[in-house]
Each structure stands twice: as structure tokens, then as C-alpha cells.
Specification:
The complex is a heterodimer of chains A (239) and B (252).
Chain A: H1 2-39, H2 49-55, E1 80-90, E2 96-107, E3 112-122, H3 127-132, E4 142-161, E5 165-182, E6 185-199, E7 204-217, E8 224-238
Antiparallel strand pairs in A: 1-2, 1-8, 2-3, 3-4, 4-5, 5-6, 6-7, 7-8
Chain B: H1 2-18, E1 26-30, E2 34-38, E3 47-52, E4 56-63, E5 66-71, E6 76-80, H2 81-84, E7 87-88, H3 102-105, E8 110-119, E9 122-132, E10 137-147, E11 151-163, E12 175-190, E13 201-217, E14 220-232, E15 239-251
Antiparallel strand pairs in B: 1-4, 1-7, 2-3, 4-5, 5-6, 8-9, 8-15, 9-10, 10-11, 11-12, 12-13, 13-14, 14-15
Classes of the chains: A alpha+beta (239), B mainly beta (252).
Chain lengths: 239, 252
């Protein structure tokens, strides 16, 4: 059964390859042919109008509408967001440590955005290490994670700082997948978070973000789900 | 790593210097009785100003569906696409602002997506980008990270996809099945605990695929895909791996 599927897929892919080549060639030929009559089309170019008028009967209606090139005007877009963050991550079974990282986002619509984050921390010694007298190496103490997430803006609004200042803000939730490298192991990670974005001006934003990076861990001998909560403050620019 | 991070942290400050230069901006005229200026790019932000018919506004920038404009009085605000679509350009024609819809689902240039799935029993994460070469044919790049029990694998592949578009079949307007073929490289790294038994290697691979796209709304759709890979190892036998993955994507 399995091999049948493969044969079908291979055959269809091969057929597709063969089918598209002649089709593309035919299309190219067709456009070549089409371009010749198009040049001799009955619609005269503006410079030829005078000639045709003197030779034959003048057209009943002289088109005076200028052909306008419709192309969307160039408007500066600023849907991307890039920046950094710093905070504290609590690595399960280890201590809470300073973390820092970078964030890159693309705003698809006013509600949804996609986001990529990379962050890291270095953990200290944990109780098990002391108790069982073993040591992680320096490289193994590096806790590095990345997530690719979708975010949804909820509760947009304004915050008021003092009497005269109002800033736009939004609370957002994110859900994503990624990887975590820790203690010589890469783990498939699910990252769920909630964040708060405050726009300082049109292009600068302040973030407060809390995200739980969850993965299956067997580090201390028993399999369990490890939760690593990262809380950070970040600064991003829209461009 | 650290200098890069530092640079990114101070990037906002560096950027501040570059955005000051005002460039030539497009000016449009209001033809509706009025347009509403929100304080931010979203329907949840309050309307604090309106610009009346006949007045003109400068377009500063666009973010998603919202245009930041500056009125003659100097007041700035964000106007929704639907209201901007009813303003006039200098030439006296309506400002063209495309609105993505189902018709663009089968007719767009770029698409990007994020997929998760199973690659021979291991968890796989893929980011994909595609560019339409013509109505049916598209080139796609996938970058995948495969996290297994014993190994860590990275795949970068490039391929051609044939989208089977059936506009005449009403029920199929939201669905686009596709077939693909491609090649790439696979980097395999054993996890620390298995470093003795396995060794790192880089192999070429080829795949055939079949999948389905399903249009959701606006520029969003879902993708599901089956891939059959052949990995050209330097051992006696080539390795065959099946992959299933699904995820969200968007086009523009």
C-alpha cells in the first residue's frame, strides 16, 4: 500500500514535470504569435492617428481619454517589528537567571502577527548537581531557545500617563513552537505567552512579555514536562 | 553573539536618527462626508478627529489595514483601508487599495507559513516561503528543524509545486490540492548522550509531496502536506523517510 502511494506520487510528479515543460513552451510560442497581430491591431497609436485620418474616413468618436497607467502609489509600509528584550527566566530544576534575546515580528493584520524570538540564559548549579555530585559543563549550562509563534492582539486601548499623555497599547497572546537547547539536548518546545505592547510613538514600542517554554525533559533521570517561564521587558521598532 | 544582541538592543536608538527625514508623501482628497481618524492602527483605538469632505490628507505610512495620515491642520491619525479606498488621488481617481480575498487565494505572488508535524517519528518544525512562477507553478523553500530522541536534524530544501486549481468546481474554490518535487540537504547531529554511537553527517535528499491548501479568510489559509523523502547516504542503502505536516500560512 505504502509503495503504491510512493509510485503514485513519483509518477504524478514526473508527469507534472513533463506536462509543464511542453505547456510552458507552447505558452511561450503562443505569446510570440500573439505579439505579432497585436502590433498590427486596428487600434492606432496616438502618433498614427493623423495619418489614418487623412487616408480613410475619420472615426465617428475620437477617443480623447488618455490611457492612464494604473499602478498602486508607493506608500511606506511599516508592518515589521524588530528589537531586543531582557528579563528573567526560571529554568525548571535550576535557578531563575537573567535572560536576553531578540524578537522579530511581522504584522499580518491588525489582529494577527507572526513572531520569531531567540533568547538565552546561563543556569547556575542546581540542588541535584550538589546532591549527586556531578557538574554540567559550561556549554551545557547555556539554555538557548527559539520560538516561531502566531500572536493575536486582544484588548487594544490607551494608557494614560499623567494628565496630558496617552499611549496606544494592546494585550496580546502568543502560541508557538520551537526548540530549546539545554544540557546537550535539543527539545521540541511549545511556547505559550501573554504580552503587553505600548507604543511610545508611531514606530517605537515597549513590550512586557511572559512566556512559558514547555518541553519533555529527562535531564534528572525521570521523564517529565518542564516549564520554563520567561518574563522580560523589550524595546522594538516598527519599520 | 553578545555584540549582535547589544547592537539589536540599541538599534531603536540608532533608528531614531534615520526616521526624521521627511520624504515626499502622497496626498489624497476626502470625498465621503468625513473620514475618521483613530489614535492607533486598530478598530479598538478611539476616534478623536474627523476630516471633512473636500479637505486633503497626507499619507505618512501604512501598517496592516491602517493608514497614518496628517490633516491640513497638522493633526495625525489612523484611517482604515475601507475609508481610504474612497479618497481621491491628485489625478482625480480613487486611491487603489487592494483588499485580499478569495480571488487572491489562487492568484498571488508570495506566501509564507509555519508548519509542525512528524518526520519519521520525530517532531518537525518548518518555516516555508513560496513564490508563484505562474498560475499553477510555484517555487518553495522550506527550512525545517527535526527534534528526535537521539538526533537533531536540520533540512533546507527547495522545490517546485504544481497547484491544481479548479475555479469551475464551486466546492473546490476554497481548496487547492498540490503536488511537489524537490531536493535539499539534511544535517544530522546526534544528541550529547548518543555522540558515541552516532556521528554528524550532511546528506543530500530528494522528495515528492502531495498536499492541500484550505482558504480561511482574508490572506490566511491552512496547509497540510505529505512528503516522501529519499536521503542519499554514503552507506549501502538510501534512507527513506515519511513526513506529515500541517500549519498556517498567509499570502500577499
Amino acid at each position: 500500500m505504502e509503495s503504491r502511494i510512493r509510485i503514485f506520487l513519483l509518477a504524478s510528479a514526473a508527469a507534472l514535470g513533463l506536462a509543464t515543460l511542453p505547456a510552458a513552451a507552447a505558452q511561450a510560442a503562443a505569446t510570440d504569435n500573439a505579439s505579432a497581430p497585436a502590433d498590427a491591431a486596428p487600434l492606432p497609436a496616438p502618433s498614427q492617428v493623423g495619418d489614418s485620418e487623412s487616408e480613410s474616413q475619420p472615426p465617428v468618436i475620437e477617443p480623447e481619454v488618455e490611457r492612464r497607467n494604473v499602478k498602486p502609489p508607493k506608500i511606506k509600509r511599516s508592518d515589521f517589528e524588530i528589537g531586543g528584550f531582557a528579563g528573567v527566566i526560571n529554568v525548571e530544576d535550576f535557578s531563575a537567571n537573567p535572560s536576553y534575546g531578540v524578537r522579530f515580528a511581522y504584522h499580518i493584520s491588525e489582529d494577527f502577527f507572526t513572531e520569531a524570538t531567540v533568547g538565552q540564559t546561563t543556569v547556575g548549579r542546581n540542588a541535584a548537581e550538589i546532591f549527586f555530585n556531578f557538574d554540567l559543563t559550561r556549554a551545557e549550562r547555556q539554555f538557548t531557545y527559539y520560538d516561531l509563534s502566531f500572536g493575536y492582539n486582544i484588548l487594544p486601548g490607551e494608557v494614560f500617563v499623567g494628565r496630558n499623555r496617552a499611549f496606544n497599547s494592546a494585550l496580546y497572546v502568543t502560541a508557538g513552537v520551537g526548540g530549546t537547547r539545554f544540557a546537550g539536548d535539543d527539545q521540541f518546545t511549545i511556547a505559550l505567552g501573554v504580552g503587553y505592547r505600548m507604543l511610545v510613538n508611531d514606530w517605537l514600542a515597549l513590550h512586557i512579555d511572559v512566556r512559558d517554554h514547555t518541553y519533555r525533559s529527562t535531564l534528572l533521570g525521570l521523564a517529565k514536562v518542564a516549564h520554563n517561564v520567561d518574563a522580560n521587558i523589550g524595546l522594538t521598532v516598527f519599520f | 553573539m553578545r555584540p549582535i544582541l547589544l547592537l539589536l538592543l540599541i538599534a531603536p536608538i540608532l533608528y531614531a536618527g534615520t526616521v526624521q527625514g521627511a520624504e515626499h508623501r502622497l496626498e489624497v482628497q476626502v470625498v465621503d462626508p468625513f473620514i475618521e481618524l483613530h489614535t492607533g492602527p486598530g478598530r479598538g483605538y478611539p476616534v478623536t478627529q474627523v476630516v471633512e469632505r473636500g479637505a486633503s490628507v497626507e499619507i505618512i505610512r501604512r501598517r496592516t489595514e491602517w493608514f497614518e495620515v496628517k490633516a491640513e491642520s497638522g493633526v495625525k491619525g489612523w484611517v482604515h483601508r475601507s475609508e481610504m479606498a474612497r479618497t481621491l488621488e491628485g489625478s482625480g481617481e480613487l486611491l487603489p487599495v487592494p483588499d485580499p480575498s478569495l480571488t487572491d487565494f489562487t492568484n498571488h505572488d508570495w506566501e509564507f507559513g509555519l508548519e509542525v508535524g512528524d518526520f519519521g517519528g520525530a517532531n518537525a518544525i518548518s518555516a516555508m516561503g513560496g513564490y508563484s512562477l505562474n498560475e499553477n507553478l510555484a517555487a518553495e523553500i522550506h527550512l525545517s528543524h527535526i527534534l528526535g530522541d537521539q538526533t537533531n536534524q536540520y533540512i533546507a530544501d527547495i522545490g517546485l509545486v504544481h497547484n491544481i486549481i479548479m475555479p469551475d468546481v464551486r466546492i473546490m474554490r476554497r481548496f487547492t490540492p498540490f503536488l511537489g518535487i524537490g531536493t535539499g540537504v539534511l544535517r544530522l547531529e546526534p544528541k550529547a548522550r548518543f555522540a558515541q554511537q552516532l556521528e554528524s553527517r550532511t546528506d543530500q535528499l530528494a522528495y515528492v509531496s502531495a498536499g492541500l491548501k484550505f482558504y480561511l479568510t482574508r490572506q490566511f489559509f491552512m496547509r497540510a502536506e505529505y512528503r516522501w523523502h529519499v536521503i542519499f547516504t554514503n552507506r549501502d542503502d538510501n534512507q527513506e523517510v515519511e513526513e506529515w505536516k500541517a500549519g498556517f500560512a498567509f499570502f500577499f
